[in-house]
Amino acid sequence: MFKDINGIRIAYTDEGQGAPLLFVHGFPLSRATWSKQVAFFKANHRVIAPDLRGLGESASGPGPVSMSRFAEDLHDLVQRLSTGPVVLVGHSMGGYVALAFAMAYPNALSGLVLVGTKAGKDSPEVAAARRATAEKVRTEGVSVVVDAMAPKMLSASHADPAMAASVHGFMAASKPDGVMGALWGMADRPDASARLGQIRVPTLVITGADDTVIPPSESVILAESIPGAQLTVIPEAGHLVAFERADAFNEALNGWLESRSSAPGFRGTIS
Ligand code: MLT
After folding, report:
1. Cα–ligand 1 centroid distance for 245 (angstroms)
2. Could you tell me one molecular function GO term of this UniProt entry (predicted)?
């Protein structure tokens, strides 16, 4: 399905009925990475998974795309879909967007799930490298990013060539404008660390134990900084934990969703 949101044609999945879950993918990925969550959660939830502007099947606009711009698109989308407050599940760059959403639209959230992500901003070196990569994408295409990132998405502890090929395919479908826009946006994103204590919705932090892109220590910081947050570490999983270990991920998320109504205010543990 598609909707014109802020002048951009946004592609999204909207399936199932029940309390709404909004899944937001990472970089340079698409809603295809959430296919195993859509299939599982649509039995009991309304599951919405958009392609962020410039990625997947969504159209791109020119120039940088800030994390707040992505968040505004999401907010407009859920308003157009009349979902009411959502549990927002954001992976990696989708987590940066989720934090921007949580700060800008707290009343539009009923819960927050931060997956393989972090609150800090880029160091000057990392930001400069992102901008240099964006220039290379302009001249050489998205393979510059895909070839560098695809091998880091899954855990090294078990090799699954078919899964690795799927991940490569998700990334290779990205368009240069969208990849450049997101790179510039990430390079400029603000540090959300000081505002984590303001988050008032129940929060679950999930990481793959073998994530080398954003190490689990970042998830520990998130869980310790967000009031009442719970942390789940999934073993034998890399950065793309929800795709790689979908069963374990879905069980963790489902358990947390079910426990929220019966036991609010729980404290973080590592499981
Ligand atoms: C992602 O998976 O979204 C990216 O690795 C995030 C980043 O590059 O900071």
Report:
1. 18
2. hydrolase activity
Cβ 102 vs Cβ 112: under 8 Å: yes
Residue listed under structure tokens 């921007």: 100
**DSSP conformation letters of 185-242:** HHHTPPP-GGGGGG--S-EEEEEETT-SSS-HHHHHHHHHHSTT-EEEEETT--TTHH
| Of residues 24, 95, 39, the one with CA closest to residue 254 | 39
Residue type at 160?
D
End-to-end CA distance of the chain: 37
Choose one of 27, 115, 170 to mutate for the ligand 1 pocket test, by most ligand atoms within 8 angstroms of C-beta: 27
93 CA → ligand 1 middle, Å:
5
Structure tokens at 257: 């969703």
pTM beyond cutoff 0.80: yes
Which pLDDT tens digit goes with each residue over 112-154?
999 999 999 999 999 999 999 999 999 999 999 999 999 999 9
109 and 101 Cβ atoms separated by less than 8 Å: yes
Distance 183 CA to ligand 1 centre (A): 9
pLDDT tens digits, 222-232: 999 999 999 99
Say how far apart CA 25 and CA 66 lie, in whole Å.
15
Q: Would the CB of 242 count as within 6 Å of ligand 1? A: no
